[in-house]
Design goal:
The chain has 468 residues and is of the alpha+beta class. It has helices spanning 2-15, 18-27, 39-56, 129-146, 168-174, 222-225, 232-243, 262-268, 293-298, 341-351, 377-390, 406-412, 438-455; strands at residues 60-64, 74-79, 87-93, 114-116, 119-121, 152-158, 183-186, 198-200, 202-203, 205-214, 220-221, 302-310, 319-320, 323-332, 358-361, 370-371, 395-397, 417-419, 435-437.
Length: 468
């Protein structure tokens, strides 16, 4: 009975506007981590907004400077009820990408929460302020009903995820003992389909790289020199054509995972990828042959050309350009060595006769691919907890198609990681008009309240996951 009352309490608060009010305050703080001028706003979000919000729920909070100079601060909120009880580590990020103020549709603004029908517009509504607001509201509903959680909860909020989480790994290494837990449960990213609760157990890795053909100083008249000197744009285009087939299938052997494991295939069997009404149509013949769309995006690697420059695209002139470059990205899964991605491509291009194409990493680091076995006890427990609320099992994704700093929690802290996303794929994340669906947020609040309630019920937890 108490579980149902907690969910009812959460619904009442949501319908009464408390969730809207909390999210509106948070959206109004312009926490653009990509904008150095907003550094003070990152700290303000933690100090003025989240610290008192967690404090009201009985958490002991501490603000930490980032181990990386100039990077955004971190907040650790802890509610320790019994040192012997199950301990959960959770996570969120308070920073957002640039607001792109001038590009939002008329009537909308990035720093003002605006509801239109089933949509809540504002920067951070989907990524990630709305998601950690849902989880905190679920905690508050359980505390209001039961008076305690029945387990220990630690929540780590960073303010640099949108710039690659600088300092997060070092912080977790420094605070390893304090962050010790039995399981990691957090929320970010999209559901498989808006109406289908989803869990994912890791993320694809990501490495951005630049490919450059630099042949000479200055351009040369195409009439005088056309047919006599090489065009770097043509060379680079042909080099790119060796990296994948015409349908995007990867041809660099080291980028291809060995296989899809039986547990991954089982988890992905029958899943339908759907971005909602505004999502693009899936090209059925694009990507690795023989794989389903779900297997291609959650179980395989993908290579993308994000930008290609040759000459002056805005004002072309009749000259053969001296240089061409492209910015590319590999999303990769467990089984691909991230330290050899650039080297493997350079060897591949050299072998194909394109040694003049130089490959370099576009940033110092990369997100590492991670994946928890879908048969892990904490996965089965989470599925059961969601089923008790919704009446049906969620979609289980071995890993997110995108990338998150999950390797820090899985590898550095050694935790089983379960993510429960509260957004959907067509939320305009990282674009103007970002939004959160009201229906998804309310549903997510219900299932998270039920899950948090169950975490506090020893009878709901298998003995084998009580302590790892």
């Amino acid at each position: 009975m108490g579980r149902a009352l907690a969910i009812e309490h959460a619904e009442h608060d949501f319908d009464g506007g408390r969730f809207f009010d909390d999210l509106a305050r948070r959206v109004a703080i312009p926490t653009e981590s990509q904008n150095p001028e907003r550094a003070a706003e990152l700290r303000r979000y933690l100090v003025d907004e989240l610290l008192p919000s967690y404090g009201r729920c009985g958490f002991r909070c501490e603000l930490f400077d980032n181990p990386v100079a100039g990077a955004g601060p971190l907040l650790l909120a802890e509610r320790i009820e019994d040192a012997a009880a199950t301990t959960v580590l959770s996570y969120g990020h308070g920073d957002v990408i640039r607001g792109q103020d001038a590009s939002w549709r008329s009537g909308l603004a990035p720093w003002r929460l605006q509801r239109e029908g089933d949509r809540l517009y504002g920067r951070g509504t989907a990524d990630n302020k709305g998601q950690h607001t849902i989880n905190l509201a679920a905690v508050a509903a359980v505390l209001a009903t039961r008076g305690c959680l029945g387990f220990n909860l630690k929540v780590l909020i960073e303010t640099g995820e949108e710039v690659g989480s600088p300092g997060l790994k070092a912080f977790c290494e420094q605070q390893r003992e304090r962050l010790r837990a039995d399981v990691f449960i957090a929320s970010d990213g999209p559901r498989l389909r808006p109406e289908q609760p989803t869990i994912f157990l890791g993320s694809r890795g990501a490495l951005n790289m630049d490919l450059v053909v630099d042949l000479r100083d200055g351009g040369h008249h195409s009439g005088n020199w056309g047919g006599l000197i090489a065009n770097p744009g043509i060379i680079l285009a042909h080099a790119l054509a060796t990296i994948t087939g015409p349908k995007g299938e990867i041809r660099v052997p080291e980028w291809r995972p060995d296989s899809l494991t039986p547990s991954v295939r089982k988890a992905l069997a029958g899943l339908q990828v759907d971005g909602g009404a505004d999502g693009p149509a899936i090209d059925p013949d694009w990507g690795e042959p023989g794989l389903t769309p779900a297997e291609r995006v959650f179980g395989w690697s993908s290579f993308e050309v994000l930008a290609f420059t040759c000459g002056n695209p805005d004002k072309p002139v009749n000259a053969i350009p001296p240089r061409a470059s492209c910015h590319c990205q590999l999303r990769f899964v467990v089984g691909v060595d991230p330290t050899d991605i650039v080297g493997a491509l350079q060897r591949h291009l050299d072998k194909a006769g394109f040694g003049m194409v130089r490959v370099t990493s576009a940033r110092d680091g990369f997100f590492t691919a991670t994946r928890l076995d879908p048969e892990h006890p904490w996965v089965r427990w989470t599925v059961d907890a969601i089923r008790r609320t919704t009446g049906s099992a969620p979609a289980i994704l071995p890993n997110l198609g995108g990338s998150l700093p999950n390797d820090i929690f899985a590898d550095v802290l050694g935790l089983p990681t379960v993510w429960i996303p509260h957004s959907y794929a067509s939320c305009n994340q990282h674009a103007p008009n970002e939004h959160l669906l009201v229906s998804v947020a309310r549903d997510a609040l219900r299932l998270m309240t039920g899950l948090i309630w169950d975490l506090g019920e020893p009878a709901c937890r298998p003995a084998m996951v009580e302590r790892h």
